[in-house]
Amino acid sequence: MSEANETHAGASEVNETQTPVTSMTMIQAINSALDTMMARDEMVTVMGEDVGFFGGVFRATAGLQAKYGTHRVFDTPITECGIIGVAIGMGAYGLRPVPEIQFADYIYPALDQLVSEAARLRYRSAGEFTAPLTVRSPFGGGIFGGQTHSQSPEGIFTHCSGLKTVIPSTPYDAKGLLIASIEDNDPVIFFEPKRIYNGPFHGHYNRPAASWAGHPDAEVPEGYYRVELGKARVARAGGDVTVLAYGTMVQVVLATLAEMDEAPDAEVIDLRTLVPLDIETIEASVNKTGRCMIVHEATRTGGFGAELSALVQERCFHALEAPIQRVTGFDTPYPHSLEWAYFPGQVRIREAFKRTMED
Questions:
Q1: Given 3.40.50.720, 3.40.250.10, 3.40.50.920, 2.130.10.10, which CATH number is that of 233-358?
Q2: Which of 81, 185, 253, 267 has its CA 20 to 30 A from that of 210?
Q3: To which CATH superfamily is domain 11-227 assigned?
Q4: Which pLDDT band holds residue 202 (cuts at 50, 70, 90)?
Q5: Which entry of 8, 71, 149, 318 is annotated as an active-site residue?
Q6: Is 336 a catalytic residue?
């Protein structure tokens, strides 16, 4: 292990105690963030289906109950509405709950609690109460889970004022953003791209999964640090075209560029947080490159890419040299056996690069 001495773009208070860094998967980084915050703040609690003794379906909470006790890490019944409702009450009375929704597809029964209660509590109480809860949930495809384990519902929450929406793409950011989310006094939806839990890019279904081992963004400080919400990251600098992405798609775009014979000099912007959005970094990049591509896994119609496209057009119209391209999931129910065809993959991304560079 080595000492952390470099600051990642967009981070603040990085590794404040100069603790050692170690290579982590995203799952390990999330576990480390929870462990760090539970040790730091006794008001932080973890709750959800199978998060205690079992350690979560993906083992993100493994070992926490044994370390901090059943009063701070506890299993709940299968009732998403109840999980979030209880978490809102806990937050209003001073705790910092981190409820887990086992898969993002299961979050819909809790939608009313999130939209009508958590998002509005500060305003409705004139600031007397807040809802400092961080709702963790694996989202997107990657496990052939079909329609009930693979959805990407981030657009629903970005539409709701009062909620923050965070989506990491690396282990380093996963830990730093989760710590910042837990410390935030407003409700945060923290979506974890399960396709890259254990490696930066799973290629076609017949190729072995990549590993985070040796990846620079997998070098994670063991102690406390935070990555500020609302600050995007330039994952790859370039001058030909700006690519806006988040979560898994950041890694897919980077892998596509690495494998292209004649790749454009693309600047890849990892949004990190959708709300709050770092529009300044987006605007500066598009004004520089004159071209813009947006890549996300969610369906095209009503997806967050539509909002990004509108913002870029409003702010960078005179700089644009070609139409904005969107590469997204299809407007269909999520397929089970055809998951890899549904993903915005390398073929579709290469075609979008070709279109935007030829216009």
A1: 3.40.50.920
A2: 267
A3: Thiamin diphosphate (ThDP)-binding fold, Pyr/PP domains (3.40.50.970)
A4: low
A5: 149
A6: no
